[in-house]
Amino acid sequence: MMKTTLVFGGAGFVGLNIAEALLAAGRKVVSFDRRPPLASAQKHFASLPGAFSHLVGDIRDAAAVEAAFACKPDTVVYGAALTPGPAREAADPLAVMEVNLTGFVRVLELSRKHGVARAINLSSAGAYGAAAFRPGTLDESDAVDPRSLYSVTKFASERTAARLAELWKMDFRSVRLSAVFGPWEHESGVRDTLSPPYQVARMALAGEAIVLARPTERDWVYGPDVAAAVAALLDAPKLNHDVYNIGPGITWTLQDWGQLFAAKRPGLVVRLAKSGETPTVDPHSASDRASLVNARIVADTGMKFQFGLHESFAHLESWIKHHPDAWAGA
User: Is pLDDT of 234 > 70?
Assistant: First the structure.
């Protein structure tokens, strides 16, 4: 019998990567999102060994969320989230709290009610908050300093999951994702700014000048690696921690990424902004964040991250050729 995983936020690009990996492994995947997945994703998923279906609903709708559990999931992944900029934080803080935290608690309550074996909470390196912007690396045991509503809700979701797991004797785990990019990324309305590597790729393929505020070094993590890590956590016979960093353990710069595109496109401009010039890429922060230590997930699951700078570039180029509708529709 196929194992069933219910993915909240399954139409987002991280959710689609996770669904693809689980379907390739022969699982049944049910996506719950406020909109259907990309048509191109649904078409591709139909060719994989598992079975995919989707439910359209709002995580703030208690009845709709409960109805989703009719699929009798063995495991749950919670990836529903709003990633607001300051303007949306100020304009609608309640929505951020309801989606990122209240909706998550509702899903944990229903996971308990329906006997779910394990639930994975997709948190973020954002949970480290201001503490992340320092030299060195970030271990899961390091102190955090969340400031934005996104950071606050992500850290709160981690601690909520750990506390309820303790009280209810349930298996709830959280993962702190590094800066994710890659296949299936598209404008969905829940992230105010798409990933910097995505911005660079879109501009490069459009022949637009890529002007960067700084080289922008980070442990960018490719979507298929995130999916492999989540799949490994879902299946691991024993997990020793409440929270796991998911990052590749290596760093590279947006400038490096842009130069790979420029090497194949003569005349493409990739450079740093001059004094007073406005960059064309939003780097998401004014300085570089420390990279995530991934020792926990490697030790507990044997996870091997496959995609560095060059591997990600080669894979994404091939993926775009095989999924032109998904890329064009983004």
Answer: yes
